[in-house]
Each structure stands twice: as structure tokens, then as C-alpha cells.
Amino acid sequence: MSIRACNGAPRCFGNPETESVSAADLNTNSVKTSSAEELLSEQSYAVVDDLGLSSSSSSAQSSSSLYSVASLSSLQLIDGSALVYEVKSCRYAIGKKLNERDRVSVFKGIRMEDGTKIALKVSCRANTVYSRIEGHSEAVPLEIKLLTLANQKPRIPQIAELLDWQADTDGYTMVLERPSLCKTLAGFLEQNGGSVSEQLASVIVRQIAFAASTCLLRGVFHGDINLQNIIINSDTFEIKLVGFGNGKVTRKSPFRSFNGTYSPPEFERTGEYHGDAATAWSVGMVMFAMLCGRIPEAQDLDELDRKVWSHNDFSKECCELLCSLLRRNPRKRLHVIKVCQHNWFKALYYEQDGPEVIEVNSCSYEVILKIGSGGFGSIYKAVRLSDGRRVALKFADRTDIEYMSTKAYIPPEFKENGKYFGKPATVWSLGILLFFLVTGDYPSSTDLMRLDENSWTYFDYSKECCKRLCSLLQRDPEKRCELEDISGHAWFNSCT
């Protein structure tokens, strides 16, 4: 076990009075502690907010007060020191625990060399299954194999990417991508009152079905598609399938053990099941939960099996798909690969009550499907009938709204006094956009404070880049740089 303790610094990771990050399930031979001064230099203040840790003053801690080497359960993040985990000589700063189940822990993390956001999944299961995989001389943990297979090229964004991994005597560790603005589908539903609209459900279900189908085509049975193992971007509604710990390599013969959340009825009845049919059942259960805010009861399952289940708030195509996925007989169940071709996805994006052909300034356009909608109206894919040119049609209602924008881009002067000028507001929006391009996230309150003080820096980015951002994101619009002066900044010259 390699542990070193360093003196505390004015700002640090972790505060026992707020949320002590337990690392009880970390493989101890990869754990170190580093001083807050090392991790929270001028280039990395943003790390604190992202990892879910507090920043406060503290005194130095001795190594004996940090950890009890004899007990894994006593391994804690102490005020004044930061937990660092090493995977193949790459160091990661570890933050808030995201999940814990069956000797498996998932932590927020940041790769220290470049600030990449990651999720560190540490498995200390005693009964880890190992399996051979092409390109490796020795057998690897089965979950590593499944994720490797699922991420074969061409990669799809709906499956979480495995960035790195290592096996230890105590278990194994995986470094996974951690997208910005994401939460579990369970958390997303809770935030939205327990369920979502049929249209939003269709967007999500189609992605889940595509991810599950891709896994099966690449020889991977996920084994536990549920609301916790799907993460969703709450802005774009893009999903990623995670949690392959209960998965298996597909095979023609039936499986005789099941450790997932939604046990298929054939397993309950016969003790056997096939991966493709069980996957379709799980997708159907997730779809039902998203639409209805609960899992189906016995009466629901009877009606679904007889294909007579319906709901006043859902379209006929939606109910038909649910019935097809939740048939008790696996041979009558719709194969998950066919889900994306279902009529539900075609019918929902075209409003039957709307005009099929509309005229704009004497030109006729055929409306194909609805692309999206928001505060500024609805956008449709269409074709101009005169020459077949593909266009987008935007329909906006007359309104007296004085200001409308994406929340993160609203200038502070409008929040404070309800007024703003166009040019300074545009400069602020450009600053927010640049910040997101640089860091992969929107600025926190700490970031905004340091930007306003002209003291914000970020890892290895140049001084000119950081100064440019500070000049764009000044709270006082009169101190913000002029819109016309942006392109002439020294940063652009230094990068050429």
C-alpha cells in the first residue's frame, strides 16, 4: 500500500463536516494522498466544484491520522489531503461517491494530467469471473471484456467508453468517460415528477434500444438494463448505457442464472432464458416506467400479454410497442433489434392534425417530420415541392417575451435588474461558449468569481486564453471587452 501525506493548504479537497468521501472499496495499492496545494494549483480550482468536494482552510495531517492500513473501511478523505488513485501510472483525483452496490463503488474523478472528467469504478468482488479476449495474453475480468467488445469500432456514443483499466489482487478498476450534465435516468425521472412525455420517451427508448441491439450484435448481453444503468444528459437527452457488471457473452444455449433488475417471466417459470429476449423485456420495463412512473402491476402484465393494454394519454403505436416488448412468451416478444423500426417512432414525429403541405410566399412545402421544439417555436424537416430542395421550417407564435435564451447564457445584468444591451450580452454568450469548449462544462459560481477578478486559470491553457475568457465574462457589462475587439486579441495570434 503506497500512501503519502502532505501538509494542508489554504484550499483543499474534502471536508469531514460536509461530506467525507469514503474509499472503502478502493484497491489500496493504488491509493495515495496528495496535498491540496499540489492538486489545487492556479490551474485547477475548477476541479473542486466538479468533484463535489468543499474548499476550506485546514491544518496539516500526519500520515497516521489519515488512514488505518489494517482496515479498508477506515480509508477516508481527510480535510487537507486529497485522495489520488493511480491506474497504469496515470493519476486521478477522486471526489464524491456516485454509487455503491455489492462491493462495487463508483466515484467522480478527474484525470490530473489534462483535466478530463472520468468516473472511476472499483470492483472488489471476491467472485470476479475472468475470460480470454483477443489482444490480451492473460484472461481479463469479464466486465472489462464486455465493455471492450461493446466499444468496438465503429463506436457508438450510446455506450459508455472504457478509457483505461487495471486488474489487482483485490479486484479491478475501470476508468470510464463521464459526460457533462448527466444523471441516471432514475434521477432524471424523479426530477421530472416520475415520468416523461410520450415524445421524450420515444427519444430515449430509441437510443436505449439501439445501444442494446449494438451490444447483442457484438456478442454482449448487458444483463441489467434499468433506470440506474442508463445515464442521460438533461439538456440534450442523449443517453449512455453503463453498468455491465451483470453481463454475459452471448450464446445460443440458454442462461440459467440472472442477477439483473427485471427478471424475464421465462426465467421465473423455467429457470432458463436467452439474452436477446431478456433484453427486450428489460427495454419494455424501462419504457413502461418512463411513461407511467411505475413498473407494471399484475393486471398490466396480463393486459400487455393479451395485447389489449391501452392508456388515454398514449398513442396506439406506443401501446402496441409496449405490448410487443412485454409478452410473456419470449418467442412472441419483439426482438430488440426491430424496436427502432417500429411505427411508434415514425408516427410520433409527424403531427397528424397539422397540414401535410403548407404554403409560404406562394411556395409549397411538404412537411416530413418534427425535428424539435422550444421557447422560440417548433422546427420541421420539409421539402420544397417545386425543386425537391430539403429545408427546415420554423413555426413561431407571436409573443411579447422581452428576453429568451438558454439559461446558462443569460447575462448577469439581466438577472440583476431585468435590463441588458445586445452587444455586451453577445460578448457574455461568446464567453460562456468558449468556457464550455475549453473545460467541457459551464462555469460554476467559483469560476465566475475568479473570472470577474481576472485570476481564473485552467491547467495547461495559455495565459492569453485565460485572459480572453476573463475579459469576456466580466459581471459588469461596462468592463466587458468590446464585441469588435474580440478577434484581434493576442490569444488568436499566439495560437497561429
Plain-language structure description:
Residues 92-345 form the Protein kinase domain. One of its GO terms (molecular function) is ATP binding. Keywords: ATP-binding, Kinase, Nucleotide-binding, Serine/threonine-protein kinase, Transferase. It is a single chain. By secondary structure, the chain is of the alpha+beta class. The protein folds into 4 domains: 28-148 and 159-177, Phosphorylase Kinase, domain 1 (2-Layer Sandwich), CATH 3.30.200; 182-348, Transferase(Phosphotransferase), domain 1; 357-395; 407-494, Transferase(Phosphotransferase), domain 1 (Orthogonal Bundle). 29% of the residues lie in helices and 20% in strands. The protein contains 16 helices and 18 strands. The chain has helices at 36-39, 46-51, 63-66, 142-150, 185-191, 198-217, 265-270, 275-292, 298-305, 316-325, 343-348, 412-417, 422-439, 445-452, 463-472, 490-494; strands at 31-35, 81-87, 90-101, 104-111, 117-123, 130-131, 140-141, 162-168, 171-177, 182-184, 220-221, 230-233, 239-241, 248-249, 357-360, 363-374, 377-384, 390-395. A 7-stranded antiparallel sheet has the order 1-2-3-4-5-9-8. The protein has a 4-stranded antiparallel sheet with strand order 15-16-17-18, with no helix packed on it. A hairpin with a 5-residue loop joins strand 12 (230-233) and strand 13 (239-241). Helix 6 runs antiparallel to helix 8 (275-292), helix 8 runs antiparallel to helix 10 (316-325) and helix 13 (422-439) runs antiparallel to helix 15. The protein is globular, with a radius of gyration of 26 Å. The model is unreliable at 1-25, 39-44, 55-81 and 350-355 (pLDDT under 50).
